Amino acid sequence: MDADAIREHFAAFGAVRIRRMFGGAGIYADDVMIALEAGGEISLKTDVLSQPAFREAGSRPFVYEKDGRRTTMSYWLAPASAVDDPEAMVPWARLALEAARRGKLAKSAGRRRPQATSGIEPPSF
């Protein structure tokens, strides 16, 4: 997927910056990586607070294999409802931005990331 196509997916959310990496692309907003594109699919940043919303929407984590080892990352596939509809992508991109900000804040403060105490509801449309 090229940079213009990625920007189209996030058009209703706002400006994003695209950075090519590892045969795919990192997608940034507010200087944090909120998503990645790999193999023509967009996966959004999650954390323990936002993952239940993605799971409830039928999403799955991004997994890659290297040297025979499977690694699961903290990015989940964009829900099907958001893939072809930039308006439907907005609440999911916001969840990703919030997760990325929490991760950056926890990392800079030297703290552990937030633990799930109550789930975040999936975006309502």
Summary tags:
alpha+beta, 125 residues, six-stranded antiparallel beta sheet, 4 helices
Structural class: alpha+beta
Query: What can be said about the biggest beta sheet?
Result: 6 strands, antiparallel
Rg on CA atoms, Å: 14 Å
| Unreliable stretches | none
Amount of helix: 25-40%
Question: How many strand segments?
Answer: 6
Spatial shape? globular
User: What proportion of the residues form beta strands (DSSP E)?
Assistant: 25-35%
- In which order are the strands of the major sheet placed? 1-2-3-4-6-5
Mean pLDDT: 89
Number of helices, where a helix is a run of at least 4 consecutive DSSP H or I residues: 4
Termini gap: 26 Å
Q: Provide the succession of SSEs.
A: HEEEEHEEHH
Short description:
The protein is of the alpha+beta class and 125 residues long.
Q: Could you characterize the architecture of this molecule?
A:
The chain is of the alpha+beta class and 125 residues long. The protein has four helices and six strands; from the N terminus they run αββββαββαα. The chain has helices at 3-9, 51-56, 80-83, 86-109; strands at residues 17-21, 24-29, 32-38, 41-45, 61-66, 69-77. A six-stranded antiparallel beta sheet has the order 1-2-3-4-6-5. The longest helix is centred in the C-terminal third of the chain and has 24 residues, at 86-109. The protein starts with a helix and ends in a 16-residue tail after the last helix. The mean pLDDT is 89.
